[in-house]
Amino acid sequence: MSKSLGNELSEDLYQRLCGKNLEAYADKVILISSVDNAGRPHPAMLSYLEVVARDRRNLRLATYKDSNTTENMRRNGKATISIIDERIAYYVKGSVAELKREMSCARHNSKLNLHVEEVLADEADEEFEPGAYVSSGVTYRNPNRAKQVLKAREIIQELLQEEDQAE
Predict the structure, then answer these.
(1) Other residues' Cβ atoms within 10 Å of the Cβ of residue 75
(2) In whole angstroms, what is the distance from residue 144 CA to residue 90 CA?
């Protein structure tokens, strides 16, 4: 059952997304949901190497500049990020603005800002499911993990740079 944590990242969630511990989360998937042209949820997968908390109210995203997900966010300015891992499930809802259509360090990505509007924490209801909990999140493997993490540091650095306005 979900409960609202307010309109900013909790300490746990901020620490996961602040970009300082990429190695610990490099194999974990973040689910992003946008809204398509028909008004339906459109899920996609990102990683901790493409999402970083600028502060407790803003997440920066590096998404493929020509993807349906990015087009959906450009069009309606809404998205939900799902962070699911062992014993945790968070949903971060927010409004999205494109800051840069093409990132300098990763030209295939756009730079977006998700302004946090609501954070929800989800867990089993003890009354109906005593002792139940999420046992893991979605993970992926990259055979070039070391190279991927090195590139991610560059992407995270650019995501955290301040932008004056959308380009």
Answers:
(1) 12
(2) 29
Instruction: Tokens for 36, please give them.
Output: 């398509």
107: which residues sit within 8 A by CB, 6+ positions away? none
Class of 2-160 in CATH: mainly beta
pTM here is 0.92
Q: How confident is the model at residue 118 (pLDDT cuts 50, 70, 90)?
A: very high
Rounded distance between C-alpha atoms, residue 136 and residue 149, angstroms: 22
Q: Is 136 exposed, middle or buried (0-12, 13-18, 19+ CB in 10 A)?
A: exposed
The set of residues, in sequence order, having a beta carbon less than 8 Å from that of 22 and lying 6+ positions away, is 48, 49, 149, 152, 153, 156
Listed residue (119, 125, 123, 114) closest to 159, CA to CA: 114
Give the domain ranges of the chain: 2-160
**More confident site: 166 or 26:** 26
